[in-house]
Amino acid sequence: MTPNGGLKDPSALLRTDPAIARAYRRSAVMPTDVVVSIGPSFGKVMVVPKDLQGANLTQGTARVAPAHGVHPRFLYWALQSTQARQHWEISVGGATFKALNLEPLSMTPIPVAPTDEQRRIADFLDAETRLIDTVRAGRQRMIELLALKRDRLVDELVSGGQDASAFVPLKYLVSSVSVGIVITPAAWYVEAGGVPALRGLNVKQGRIDASDLVQISHEGHLLHRKSRLAAGDLVVVRTGQAGAAAVVPAELDGVNCIDLVIVRPGTALIPKFAEYLLNSSYAKRRVSEFSVGSIQAHFNVAAMKEMPVPRYPVAEQKRRVSAIEEAVQPIEKAISQMREQDQLLAERRQALITAAVTGQIDVTTARGLD
Fold this sequence. Notes:
Layout: H1 18-23, E1 34-37, E2 45-47, E3 61-64, H2 72-78, H3 82-92, H4 102-106, H5 115-159, E4 167-169, E5 174-179, E6 189-190, E7 195-198, E8 203-204, E9 207-208, E10 214-216, H6 218-223, E11 234-237, E12 245-247, E13 256-257, E14 260-265, H7 271-278, H8 281-290, H9 301-306, E15 308-310, H10 314-357
Parallel strand pairs: 7-13
Antiparallel strand pairs: 1-2, 1-3, 4-15, 5-14, 6-10, 7-10, 8-9, 11-12, 11-14
Helix pairs in contact: 2-5, 5-10
């Protein structure tokens, strides 16, 4: 399910044996039902389309059957109102595993309105949100094109003009390449008072998101001294979105890390140039080509050590970093402005939904869609 667009790819639905489906007949859905995701990514809502009549649900989703007099699409929109979302957030609270239980879902506050009014509100929101979603999709496409232009500029400035014969394995330009904690890291997790540890989800292309760090015990930190990070190190995601790389900032000096490749630049490679290099399309292709694993591909330390990279004097690396930052700054600014505008549109969409389902907008003149 997508956040508000229903099924992303109906052809990708799992199928079960008819005998098993009969045993779970209670959770079979009807075209007037509303399905709500209740797992870790709870809150996605969709109205069941006609071609999914009789389909069943897996764990992590809930069937909401509208009562007599409740229009399914009005219910769909009401479940996306701010009041509904706040009720769910409060119900989930600070639980480590954020999932919405059926009881708080059944207690979700839904505004009461005559059936005709529900239909008008649903028609109004269908039309208005479609306009907003169209603008947001166009803006997202622009962001993607700008990002592509930025990446091509970086590629050209990182390795442009360098003969392939001048490339050398990364291991010859750095102090060391190692890996973070990979054996049962969860055994060292503590709720508080420990040492922060970076994971793959904290590492983005060119930056580190420290908003959701785990902590490991001091005992675990001492036992895994080799994966202690220093400011200026590079951490590279090796599993999942493999290849994203970022320089460790000074405020994270001394933290540990889990299942990340650690590149410690020596005197021959400056961290910022290495970050641009490892996030380039060239490096991504290498990571993709040399990732291993049948269930979940990962990039290993040996492959990182052998990755051919251009050899430049430090002064030339600094010149190229300056050129990259000068070239990409206006693109980054444009992308940032578009993301801010998109956020405003998302807030406008949410406010419109809430105002409409709670009767704060007069939709009596809204054009009906059916």
